[in-house]
Design goal:
Order of helices and strands: HEEHHEEHHEHHHHHEHHEHEEEE
Structural class: alpha+beta
Shape: elongated
Helix content: 25-40%
Largest sheet: 4 strands, mixed
Number of strands: 11
Low-confidence stretches: 1-51, 59-66
Radius of gyration: 31 Å
Mean pLDDT: 80
Length: 312
Amino acid sequence: MNYSCPLPPACLNLIGSLFHQDEWRCVLIGSHHAHVKAWPSLGLTFFNRVWGRQQRKAWLRFSGQPFDIVHFPEVIPLNVGGTYFTTRLSTLRRYEDTMLAAMFSGRHHIPRDAEGRFFIDRDGAYFGDILNFLREGELPQRDRVRAVHKEAQYYAIGPLLDSLEDTQPLTGEKVRQAFLDLLPYYKENLEQIVEIAKVRAMQKKARFAKLKICVYKEEMPVTPYERPLFNSLRFERSESEAKIFEHHCEVDVSFGPWEAVADVYDLLHCIVSDLAERGITADQQCIGVCDKHLINHYYCKRPIYEFKITWW
């Protein structure tokens, strides 16, 4: 087969080695260009990794991909999800490894709205914060940090992500998550709370549901007064007695134990806050301890909390 294309023979040999002959073909266009039609699933990912920049440029021309540079005005009118913005082209290109810089690099076609503004199909509520950072490095107010962080992830603005992750509330969330990682099945227990509360409310056709939840930091089921006696006997218990101490309190869900400075009240705050993030109102109060008899004069002293989940 004879070829007439801008790619050197070595590139054509590489293509021939990659694709079976019946999976691609050359179609001559004029006397100097051709299209290579390969399976769409292969895309250009392989070529971006293997070929150099000049080879990729030749491939784009060779495959019929548009390679003409789009020229933008110095001042860019934007329509971000229906919200209008105006900024300089240099602002959008400030960090070259971002989505915005790539969009306005001249290599891509950007649709326009009826008024000629460049359209970005994204909620524009926090795009002003994105522009403020690109213009002068300004960070959003604390109550907007989480939402702006999400937008910065979408637009792949690394410097903004780095700056936001060193501020509250994101830094605090990292510390909180480090604590929650110490608790086995925290997320599963949270889901169980929601499911049990939903089922009970549905069964009773009630506005709210109540659950008993055990939250304990230490495995040791004794009071501080009893602890010296417990410590002196802990290594003398038989295997059957040891299992007695590892009982399950008669509650719906149980959290614990864990080893950290954070205490029971800190975990209760996490539970209520995470439920609130899902739009679920939860109130809690301590209603006593398990008080189950274990062995001899030992009773379980794990605290029991009543959670009230309100659905409407």
